[in-house]
Amino acid sequence: MAQQPSSKFYSIEDSKYSLQFNKIIIEDDIDVTLHESDEKSIHLEGRKEDISAIRWRIKDGVLYLSSRSGSLKDKVLVTVDVSGLKQIEINGASEVKSLGNLHSGPLDIYLNGYCYVNIKNAGKITLLNGEGIGLDIKKRSANVLVSSGGA
After folding, report:
1. What are the domain boundaries of the chain?
2. Residue-level pLDDT at 15
3. What span, in angstroms and rounded, lies between the C-alpha atoms of 95 and 97?
4. Which positions ≥6 away from 148 have C-beta within 8 Å?
């Protein structure tokens, strides 16, 4: 979670989006919380200069989250409203979790880096790790399938 150094430097920014997406690609160690909602909002919390480094866009049904200035681990928390999510690709040391349960059908999560995932979903979750990436499963529910070595 983003650390709140001082309210003087701490900032919150909300952006609305209109395009649909069912896939998210996360780069540059950005911590993301997914929230099941039809609101279509992206909420950013952190220092102003770190928030301004977040770059996001939606193209061809994919939400791309990245940084203009390298790793944002523990600097910014990005909360994304999602609906009908099918796939997440995590590249780097991001922490990705859900705020409550997602109502998606099957959800594929591709892990490419030292990341932490804590997602609850109505449908089956399939974790796929990239080549040379190890998995440490701390807790697993009945709806999780793990596949090693990439897809």
Report:
1. 10-147
2. 95
3. 7
4. 129, 135
**Tokens in use for 68?**
């203009």
Does domain 10-147 fall under CATH 2.160.20.120? My reply is: yes
**Residue type present at position 85:** L
Q: How confident is the model over 60-111, as pLDDT tens digits?
A: 999 999 999 999 999 999 999 999 999 999 999 999 999 999 999 999 999 9
Tell me, what amino acid is at 32? V
Across-strand partners of 91?
112
Structure-token match 């959800």, residue found: 107
**Residues 113-124 pLDDT 10s:** 888 999 999 999
**Burial classification of residue 102, based on how many CB atoms lie within 10 Å of its CB (0-12 exposed, 13-18 middle, 19 or more buried):** buried
